[in-house]
Amino acid sequence: MKIRQKVAEPVSIAFLSVITCCFGAIILLLIITTSMDTENTEDPADPRIPKISLKQREIFSMQAASLGQLEELDKSLQTLEKLNLEKDAIAQKVQKASSQDRSVNDNNEERKVSIQKLLVAQQNLTDEMKRLYRELDQKETNLVGGIPIDSEYIIFIIDTSGSMFRYAWPKVIAQIEDTLRVYPKVKGVQIMNDMGVYMFPSFRSKWIPDSPARRRAINERLKTWNAFSNSSPAEGITEAIQTFNAEDKKISIYVYGDEFTGNSIRRVVDYVDKINHSDTPGENLVRIHAIGFPVQFAQPAQLQHTGIRFATLMRELTRKNGGTFVGLNAFR
User: Do residues 264 and 234 make contact, with C-beta atoms less than 8 angstroms apart?
Assistant: First the structure.
């Protein structure tokens, strides 16, 4: 029997690794410890230490001062920002105020223009009112008993019948004098009776020149003038219109009477419309006015019809020929 010899096993690799790591760790700790001791070691006798300490204190003071300045700067910036906002707000208010001021100025200008226009309108209105008042005064001056007296030529047609001559003649003369008095000066005058008979035959179909002497002559002749009459003014009216009408003359006829004995009022009115027609629309060649004397109304009612017919005829003629009919209350 063989005896086997026991062989020794080599050192384990794992054990060697552990040992190696331990030594390495010890060495590393020694190195770190030595390094820290070297850095923390100060030499108390080093002359730079006081200067370094002073510089550090200065740095710390400067940092503190800088921090304070930064805080103040931040506050200043905040204040500046606030002021800028206030400035913008004020600028907006100023702009708004300027706009309002311009608007006010514009309104003031418009107001001034409006006031000026109103002043002009007021002046025009005042001038117009003055003109109208002048025209009104003129119109009032040109009216006598409601009869316009704006004509330059006048013709008197007088009923010379017995009833007028016996009962109303002084009143007739007074009325003619009054009419002439309100015409201080005319370019021509003519007088005929209701049948177309001229008071002054020498002036037949002609205008009698107006003068104080002629007016006195007319007044004297009237006192005794008693030409034949049929108590109908139709003939005298048609004779006056046909003889003296003229587009370029302002002519008025004054009829003085108390009755109409003609056949037809309508026929007289229609014929006068035919011969007194002007070329100007709405105008007549002559105006026709009438003064009615109530002689017939002093008689019994059954005898008053000719007086009523005269009033009816003359109202229609004056209405259609731009004139006025005036009925007197008394014939004396």
Answer: no
